[in-house]
Backbone:
């Protein structure tokens, strides 16, 4: 096995494991104590784990993965906006203690556990069909819930953000519309292509 593959398998496997921590923490705390404790106990961990996704930009930049650099950059940047631009920069935002933080963490973590597990398995050449199906089907629900949570979280943070930062966030909200449409329709096309091959 080529060295880059070993690195990528390790990276994707570790990433899936880290997002499993986010999922467990979110589910356990949401079921037992709820907000605002879910945010208080998970936001730093989630921020660190999400920040590690910067490595994906590097992987795309140097050609270790086929993911387009611009798409990877914008996806990672949009999430960093949430974890750093809201959760850390605006710790008193009402969004942080709202239920949308819980749906955000659930959507992100489930998506990433499936995605990274699929990537790791794909690099070994042995991907179970159920994992392929999950990778190219769960986005129908998880992408809209994730984006809706992100958008609502930003909207709830506008007053706390102040005038200038608030306007910057409003501009970003407008960009979400074409961004979501492009990503969602791309995944629908990929699903048809990938699952049709599996069913042949």
Residues:
């Amino acid at each position: 096995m080529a060295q880059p593959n070993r690195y990528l398998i390790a990276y994707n496997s570790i990433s899936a494991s880290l997002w499993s921590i986010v999922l467990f923490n979110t589910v356990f705390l949401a079921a037992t104590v709820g907000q605002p404790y879910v945010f208080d106990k998970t936001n730093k961990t989630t921020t660190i784990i999400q920040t590690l996704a910067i490595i994906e930009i590097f992987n795309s930049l140097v050609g270790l993965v086929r993911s387009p650099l611009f798409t990877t950059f914008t996806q990672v940047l949009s999430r960093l906006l949430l974890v750093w631009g809201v959760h850390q920069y605006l710790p008193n935002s009402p969004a942080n203690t709202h239920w949308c933080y819980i749906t955000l963490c659930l959507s992100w973590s489930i998506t990433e556990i499936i995605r990274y597990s699929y990537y790791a398995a794909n690099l070994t050449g042995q991907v179970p069909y159920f994992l392929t199906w999950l990778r190219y089907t769960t986005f129908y629900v998880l992408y809209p819930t994730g984006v809706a949570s992100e958008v609502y979280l930003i909207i709830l943070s506008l007053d706390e953000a102040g005038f200038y930062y608030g306007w910057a966030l409003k501009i970003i909200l407008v960009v979400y519309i074409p961004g979501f449409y492009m990503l969602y329709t791309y995944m629908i096309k990929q699903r048809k292509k990938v699952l049709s091959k599996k069913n042949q």
